[in-house]
Design goal:
Blueprint (H helix, E strand, L loop, with lengths): L2 H13 L1 H9 L3 E5 L2 E4 L4 E4 L14 H11 L10 H13 L3 E7 L2 H16 L3 E5 L12 E3 L6 E3 L6 H5 L1 E4 L4 H11 L3 E6 L13 H14 L2 E6 L10 H6 L5 E4 L11 E6 L16 H14 L3 H23 L4 E6 L2 E6 L7 H5 L3 H13 L2 E2 L8 E2 L6 H23 L1
Parallel strand pairs: 3-15, 5-8, 5-9, 9-10, 10-11
Antiparallel strand pairs: 1-2, 2-3, 4-12, 6-7, 11-12, 13-14, 14-16
Helix pairs in contact: 1-2, 3-10, 4-10, 7-8, 11-14, 13-14
């Protein structure tokens, strides 16, 4: 880290301890462009972290920036309903025709709160079932851990009401039998089953079709609403997200991440058209106008089939290259991937659930991360954590990433032999 970066980090330690801690783990950034981020000393890093998935088209995508600049001159402020909100809902309805209506929100958290309230009102029930691999986010109801038989849970967040955790059951990821057993016990009082199709709490786990079908069948039999977490997979895996890729028909979908075009956070809730659902009156304020315009520009780009084809090709190039390097250096470096989302882990067996996740070699991962960062490639501080490619990543960028990882594995080999 350069002089300016050290100065900013020192300031953060005094005023923003959380930012400082995360800056020490990764970087405190000054700008970003394409598939690269820059620190305060203007040092460039090839980015594989991807802004938690929001960077789908690439940082500072020119088409998105032009749209935002035009919108900035209109003088519209947050809190007002604007024409772009209607236009975006129309675009989303055309791209994903199975869903209607839509509610657009300023954050994923607001979208989740709305979705859960609707499920409880619609079913007259209170409980929620989640999987231990589900992405937790900021919602207190999802920050729980199983502590007893059949997924009885307690909160992971200090200060969260104990009553909240008692309404949530946690099921091991991929365990259809336990899911069925939990439904047998509490299905008649279950309003919603939350499904993160990639188990992002464990990095990325490609889901078993049999497991997904058991979740769908269990929801239908119990009369619970199936809520699909598309906050990361939505628009990124395909225009229709994970629902399209895995052939799912959820009752409710929650979106975020790439929807805001990487410009501003936003969320959305959409219902399956067959429900004829009516959103409640207690809706949160609409997203900022700039986020709406950025989302419209993003959807316009995604109408081109070549975008997702390119993301798939670059993802396959990276995953195949990493597995070849792991074999060459006899290192247990595993790569899980679905489309442009991937996770890496040093583990004897591929990460498939909570047990294999807990056995990941974090020391080897930390050595790899430090080495590649010194060579200009940014990976997450912990493993496995979801990583992302953008449309701005080209063949040469993937080659750079693979060459850098190769150099890091060589260095680790020399250190181990010394």
């Amino acid at each position: 880290m350069g002089q300016r970066g050290e100065e900013i980090l020192a300031q953060a330690r005094r005023r923003l301890p959380l930012a400082a801690r995360r800056g020490e783990e990764t970087l405190l950034l000054a700008k970003a462009s394409g598939c690269r981020v820059f620190d305060a000393d203007n040092v460039a890093f090839l980015d594989l972290v991807g802004g938690d998935g929001g960077n789908l088209l690439g940082y500072a995508n020119q088409y998105v920036l032009d749209a935002v600049r035009r919108a900035a001159g209109l003088g519209l402020v947050t809190g007002l309903h604007v024409a772009a909100e209607v236009e975006l809902a129309e675009e989303l309805g055309e791209i994903i025709p199975s869903l209607a209506p839509w509610v657009l929100t300023s954050s994923e958290t607001e979208a989740w709160e709305l979705a859960l309230r609707w499920c409880r009102r619609d079913t007259g029930r209170q409980r929620v079932i989640v999987f231990d691999g589900n992405r937790r986010g900021a919602l207190e109801a999802f920050n729980v851990v199983a502590t007893g038989p059949l997924g009885i849970s307690q909160s992971l967040v200090a200060g969260a009401p104990a009553e909240l955790a008692r309404l949530v059951r946690v099921v091991p990821w991929g365990d259809g039998d336990t899911f069925a057993a939990v439904l047998t016990e509490v299905g008649v009082d279950t309003a919603a089953v939350i499904l993160d199709p990639l188990a992002l709490q464990y990095g990325v786990i490609p889901p078993s079709p049999q497991f997904l079908q058991s979740v769908v069948d269990g929801c239908r039999a119990a009369g619970a609403r199936l809520v699909l977490d598309e906050t990361v997979s939505g628009l990124r895996l395909a225009r229709g997200g994970a629902a399209e890729v895995f052939g799912l028909q959820p009752d409710v979908c929650v979106y975020g991440g790439a929807l805001g075009g990487g410009v501003s956070p936003m969320g959305a809730v959409a219902w399956h058209r067959s429900l004829g659902a009516l959103p409640p009156d207690d809706l949160p304020p609409p997203p900022p106008p700039l986020a709406l315009v950025a989302a419209l520009a993003t959807l316009s780009v995604l109408r081109n089939d070549a975008v997702h084809q390119r993301l798939e090709e670059r993802g396959a190039q990276l995953a195949n290259g990493i597995e070849a390097l792991a074999e060459r250096f006899s290192r247990p470096l595993r790569c899980n991937r679905v489309g442009s989302i991937f996770s890496l882990a040093f583990a004897r067996q591929r990460v498939t659930d909570g047990g294999s996740f807990a056995r990941v070699d974090q020391d080897s991962w930390s050595r790899l991360v430090r080495s590649v960062r010194e060579a200009g490639v940014l990976l997450p501080a912990r493993s496995p954590q979801a990583c992302f490619l953008s449309h701005a990543h080209g063949v040469k960028d993937i080659e750079q990433a693979l060459s850098t990882i190769e150099g890091a594995l060589k260095k680790m080999q020399r250190e181990d032999e010394a």
